[in-house]
Amino acid sequence: MTVETSAPVEPVRKSVRVACPVADAFRLFVEGIESWWPAEIHSRAAHGQYGSGVTVERVVFEPKVGGRLFEITSEGAEGLWADVVTFEEPHRFVLAWKPNDRPELPTEVEVRFEPDGDGTRVSLEHRGWERLDARAGEARRGYADGWRIPLERFAAAAGR
Asked: Do the bridges between strand 92-97 and strand 107-116 make them parallel or antiparallel, or are there none, so unpaired?
């Protein structure tokens, strides 16, 4: 069940076009996430949640409802980023996004894969900011730019 805690906040919406079929784009995003995700800047380890010197060794996306998206650190710790709440291969997935240990509800990230000529349009919507109460505006502003690098790296890996 989704719980709204304050006034609605505009979702962050980003999209990128890649030059590969929908199924290939979906597979790269999910199964190949470790090959393109910028864990050196976008991870729990990169934000110092484990202390200094700890790095991400692996990024794992479990492709099923109830699966997880998480990092495994150089010290063997697992850091949860999200739970998979919808998984409709190869068209879309939805994540309950919470890459931290703050006492707050997760936001929601939906990624859609749609045919676009001879390629694929990958559209990301990050919503549910109001669940973060006083942090909503700050968090949304950070992610509005923060999703740019992961999507650029994904597009490069997919052969933009």
From this structure: antiparallel
pTM of the predicted structure, to 2 decimals: 0.93
Distance CA 126, CA 2 (A): 15
Structural domains present in the chain: 12-36+82-157 (3.30.530.20)
Q: Is pLDDT above 60 for 146?
A: yes
User: Is 80 in contact with 68 (CB distance < 8 Å)?
Assistant: yes
Residue linked to tokens 């990024």:
59
Q: What is the pLDDT of residue 8?
A: 85
Phi, psi of 23 (to 5 degrees): -60, -40
Residue (of 98, 83, 92) closest to 44 by Cα position: 98
Whether the bond into 90 is cis, omega within 30 of 0: yes
Q: Say if residues 126 and 136 touch (Cβ distance below 8 Å).
A: no
pLDDT value at residue 28: 98
Q: Shortest CA distance to 14 belongs to which of 123, 90, 154?
A: 123
